[in-house]
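Why do we bother with a discrete structure alphabet at all? Because it lets us treat a fold like text: something you can write down, compare, and reason about line by line. To make this less abstract, here is a complete entry for AraC family transcriptional regulator. Read it the way you would read a sentence in a foreign language you are learning: slowly, and without expecting to understand everything at once.
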Amino acid sequence: MNSNKIHSCHLGPEISPEQFITEHFFLYLLEGSMIAYDGQNTYTIQPGDPLLARKNHLIRYTKHKNNSVFRKVVITLEKPFLVNFLERHDIDVYSTQNTNSLLFLPDSTLLQSYIKSLEPYYTQQEEIEKGFEDVKREELLLILLKTIPELKDILFNFAIPDKIDLEEFMNRNFRFNVSLDRFAYMTGRSLSTFKRDFQKIFGSTPGTWLTRKRLEEAYFRIKSEGAKPGDIYYELGFEDFSHFSFAFRKQFGIRPTALLHYSDSTQ
């Protein structure tokens, strides 16, 4: 598809700035590329790739511009819209074993035509003009269900997450900077039950364990792999470098940048 005239577009509520997907959303990359990581899998997203990001999953993105340009179409499929759609259509929903955070979707003539059809409705704020939002959202959903019928079992599953193995989950996802409430929800627990189970399994509070676990990985990557502290603090769950550096020095008695220089001098 020639996308030279298609601008970035966002339809629906804003995507959470957390590394936690609060609502399903459809993404179609127009220009640039993305690398995404969900704790298990790494996804490479190229122009022309349509995909569905699944709610109640963790994900981290790195965007790469093409000649200083990054363009995308994002359509959020929030729960109230999906509930309303389900009430108006005869759809049987079953459980699914698919656990991927991102689902790459097959391209189709219908989908290509849909992306092109958005162009007349763009505003300067990269949003669909009021009055057309639900119409275009419903059109997309009908296309997706016609192309991939099994998506119904993902989109219309409104159940809360089941209780899962806490130790395995936390060891896989400790790098994600999300609240304890999110971690508790994703493991199928109330916050109080999450904290109680966490103490039994790890012998520590979640906050203390998360900080120590992230710092230990940072120490290993800097000392053994020569990773630059400024390049890894965010991906290890720290919001800013100063907090990371302070916590690192408190834990190991040396600044992360000093450890990097020490590692370089001993090689």
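What the structure line is telling us, in plain words: The chain has two domains: 9-155, 166-265. The first helix runs from residue 79 to 88.
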